[in-house]
Amino acid sequence: MVEITVCGQALERASAERATVTVQSRWSAPSAEAAMRAVAEAHERLVADARSHETSGAAESWHADRVSISHHQEWVGEGQPRTSVYTAAAAVTVRFRDFEELGSWIGSIGLHETHEVGGIEWSLSDETERALGKTARTRAIADAVERAGDYAEAAGLGAPVVAGIQEPGTTAPGPPVPKARMATMAMSAADAAPAVSLEAGELSVRAAVEVRFVADPLAHAI
Hints:
SIMPL domain-containing protein; SIMPL/DUF541
């Protein structure tokens, strides 16, 4: 009896279904009160927008759980006393379903100098990611069976039989199997309408599995 161990792999792709963006309100002023006041007003507008997007169904969820204020001394000129500068910031994160609505929102909030738009993280819905993961795992097993069959045939062995299955890294440390999330983003804004056109590429869900087989030598090969 001969043991054959192979690694089966599979990749499933689907277009992005969610886009998560973080918008930060930031302002600097000579006093903490002035900085916080400006940020609080800007942040309130963003929170109102986030609630509205969730209510309309354009967004799946949102949260506002980051706020900070810092202070530093700024150099003005030779022989001049340093001035105090206070910087306040707060952030809102929104997970959108509607990419067109997201583009319009980015275009509108970009007009306010207190707002800073972070990068967009593209993702799949939880349901789609689970479905693709299941399909990828099934195909990874099929890939392992095919690989083992090829090795057995080349070595003059009979049909291999599964003796063990494990995911890479479950018994010993090793390099992680990445679940790739790749997307492209195209942005353009018309002069009259400051909407941002967003188009996400495909995202990938990978699966890998180690399968151990056993196979007997063919009678004529003994």
